[in-house]
Amino acid sequence: MTAPHDTTAIAIVGMACVLPKANDPLAYWRNIVDKRDCLEPIPTENNWQIADFYSDDPKDPDTTWATRGGFIDKQPFDPIAHGIIPNALEAIDSDQLIALLVARQCLADAGLDPDGEGWDRDRVSCILGHTATSELVLDLGGRLQAPIWRRAMEASGLSPDQARSIAAHALEHYPTWQEQSFPGMLSNVTAGRIANRLDLGGTNASVDAACASSLAAIHYAIGDLLSGRADLALAGGTDTMNDIYMYMCFTRTPALSKSGDARPFDDSADGIVIAEGVAMVALKRLSDAERDGVGHRAEQAGRVELFTGTVTCVVPVHRVELGARARGREVGAPGRAVVTRGRGEGEGEERYEGSEHRSPPGRVRKRGTSCRAAPSRRHTDRSVYEGAFMRRSAARSGTPRSARRALAAGRLARG
Fold it and tell me: Which one of 12, 31, 68, 72 has the fewest beta carbons within 10 angstroms of its own beta carbon?
């Protein structure tokens, strides 16, 4: 292992994102400057139908008063170009596929060719924040309820044949279990798939620290850099699950805004509005970024200055610590934090999960070993291989369930 580095300054050398009404960081900042409201009514072709679940009476079970949210645009995705078998796309969660797209964009923004040579892939880590569950878990879990449906129908007077026929029709709304279903639903595979497809040899892991998951991921990524385990780190967060499940979770907490607007720190605030998105930054030690001539330096007395260049900011890591517990006392350990402004709230127990890295098929690693790995697939370009999704018809929307998730739900588009 390389000797620990004594610097505590970290440079952001690349950024990429897919967020509501913003498919890149420039669009994201422009929305902020323009004070654009990126929330919208829940699209009729998306995720779930308001008419099936809406009620303004909080006492009505299995209902929500929410009608708005943040939804990402459809993203072009070619599974073949990413080493993914098209007919396995329905077995891969949206998080994994869109995160793969964003990771490639983030590397490109850092001046690296994701498919090219000239950079040491063995020294690159990928640590991503992810919380709750995945949409695919719910879809595949719902499919296993068929015996309950059949017994209920038989108890209501239908014959066993009628019950089986109706249940079989209902199952057409759900994706089928297959070889890639298990890895396709695991959050730790999101970072692992990026490492696999891009042949990254550093740490790949998923971090769950609730609403602070992205910050926790950056915290661990900075630790990799400061300890010398990595020279470049991809870090950020993924959440593409704006299904009725998440709306129900936050409705029953209760946390969702009844007005449909989020007003942080405002006297009129009445709750949150949930949204989906994927965002990442590429991090380097400042000394390495300056040595490599990448971007600008922007460090001033504990605050972050934003620029439109490749390097957006430098975080004086020794000044801050992740979490509200940092307030009121001095932070002594370098590399303990990521936030240099804001309230810094969002504590929660951190869980650090890793997944084994395997090289893409046919790629020979520098350490002299050749590995083969089965590709993984699911939430990216929804229309490129539309035929792969059209075997089922979708619950609640009249379109195939798998197509609704991967094609029509607004996350993937015909490439």
Answer: 31
